[in-house]
Amino acid sequence: MAFPLRRPVAFTADRFITSPSNAAARAWLSRKAWPDGRLWLWGPAGTGKTHLLSVWAQEYDATVLDARLFSHSSSGGRIRVQGNLAIDNADSPGDEATLLHLLNDALAQGDRVLMVGRLPPSRSHFALADLASRLRATATTATGEPEDDLRATLLLSLLAHRQLVVSQSVTDWLWRHLPRTGSALVSAVERLDDAALARGTAITRALAREMLPDLLMSEHSGE
């Protein structure tokens, strides 16, 4: 029986893979101050946003919150945080009023707030006008899809994190035939790991063809 046990991802500075696609974001995060103390980091899935948020939170002793877990309290109670804040999934808060209160508190206290989302504030929908206005006035930076060198390194890093031993011929083949996005690499490695674990087999091209039909691109270039 295969149990879905996974080692937690270590989002540390030494494990982050730097590249031109995340250079602008890293430059903004290294600044000692942001306009009004706020920064919004956005970009596609699988491009290192949560990793960057975690590294920044460790460096600046920030409290990490997931905005999707925010909820309205009928008793009037709400989250109060002293110190810097790092808010993941800020473009999909469970309760917008909670996010607005946190931003107001941070501004009053002189604390910094890093927010991360898939989309920039200008392309995200917020029902609260005050929150929408505040976020659209926030400085933004972005991560882009990985370059070829980064894709190759990321694929190997994802396999290594799961302690998967895959032949170079298979990793090279996967790199050539998977879409050029970070999310595709993450999804492919997760699915291949689960299938190989359940079947007790190695990760091969045949397994990849079976498990990733929606991801793999044409093989007209040959084997």
UniProtKB/TrEMBL annotation:
TM region(s), chain numbering: none
PANTHER family: CHROMOSOMAL REPLICATION INITIATOR PROTEIN DNAA (PTHR30050), DNAA REGULATORY INACTIVATOR HDA (PTHR30050:SF5)
Pfam families named among the record's database cross-references: Hda_lid (PF22688)
Residue span, Hda lid domain: 160-212
Protein name: DnaA regulatory inactivator Hda
Superkingdom of the source species: Bacteria
Protein species of origin: Gluconobacter japonicus
Signal peptide bounds: none
InterPro entries in alphabetical order: Hda_lid, P-loop_NTPase
